[in-house]
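Following up on my earlier message about glyoxylic acid. Here are the inputs again, as you asked, copied directly from the submission form:
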Amino acid sequence: MIAASIADFRELARRRLPHFLFEYIDGGSYSETTLRRNVEDLRDIAPRQRVLRDVSALDLSTELFGQRLSLPVILGPVGLAGMNARRGECQAVRAAEAAGVPFTLSTVSACGLDEVAAAATKPFWFQLYMTRDRGFMRELLAEAREVGCNALVFTVDMPVPGSRYRDYHSGLAGAPGIKGAIRRTWQGAMKPGWAWDVGVMGRPHGLGNVMRKLEGRTGIEDFFAWMRNNFDSSIAWADLDFIRSEWRGPLIIKGLLDAEDSVEAANLGADGIIVSNHGGRQLDGVPSTARALPAIADAVGERLTVLADGGVRSGLDVVRLLALGAKGVLLGRPWVFALAAQGQKGVEHMLRLIEAEMRVAMTLTGVTSIADIDRSILVPEAGQPRAARP
Ligand code: GLV
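Thanks, got it. Here's what our run produced:
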């Protein structure tokens, strides 16, 4: 199948990946209500079709945190992403560079900071969680600085992981020891393309940045145990001082859904925030990003850079989030599906699809630059879903 859409990449990923890996990316928490809402609320937003406005010269570039981007799109942090293709994050960072957009490396990536830095030719972004071990955080921040990361994404919506039923059903979670390992190995063996590319040729399979803490324990359950035991639920706004003092570059706080919290982030001097519900993977039932974003953009859009993620399945969706107040949009599942399907080439292809669809959306809403995209390109009447109303 030639992928014409993100949905096609999802299907290609489903065919190629062991069941437990596909379910980990694809799934959300509990009944997956927020996961669905992210997609549906965004899809419900009606763009305002305008014609005959000379839109022959489109400029999709933008500037974020002093960096010039070809598109207002960022490959967002995704844990375990590198398990979906051979040394996956190294392939993804190269695809992002080719497209002129930032790549964000997750703390819990397969390839560590040093390996991704060796594969990259330009700076990339790094994502960090608050862990109990502040020394470990300090080490990671020092390493991120050393390898030249040019933005820090600090995730605050995961003091505890949300329960994802699919991970229990697939054998990724809650199946410790040999039983779980046998199930996952069997699922891997059922997918020979992945088994060769990643299972055999893509070793080592640990989490590059966390490995040093696990002292030889390398089973996937060791990593999940580490995550459960080390994420810090005592984190409070005052702890951001610790991050600020260790990190001088752009600081972007990820996982805000509430306008009052976003004002706190601005008061603390964050350079940016990411309006996000963690792709519907944390507190199920919270509002979609599309619904939360306008009030947040109104509250702090003049004080810091508002980014958003969640539910994006096309370039039109990127334009919708920009219209609702985001200055840039992070992609999660779309790039991981594309990576799983076709490696670096797949991610490059997916980004070309996003760009092409953004061009159609901009052309038919009558705007020629990213700065011109605002709520005026959405249908204003009462029929518009609440997500699009201020
Ligand atoms: C980690 O960030 C996850 O959502 O699993």
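One observation from looking it over: The beta strands are 62-64, 67-69, 73-75, 104-105, 125-129, 152-155, 251-256, 272-275, 305-309, 328-331. Hope that helps, and feel free to reply on this thread.
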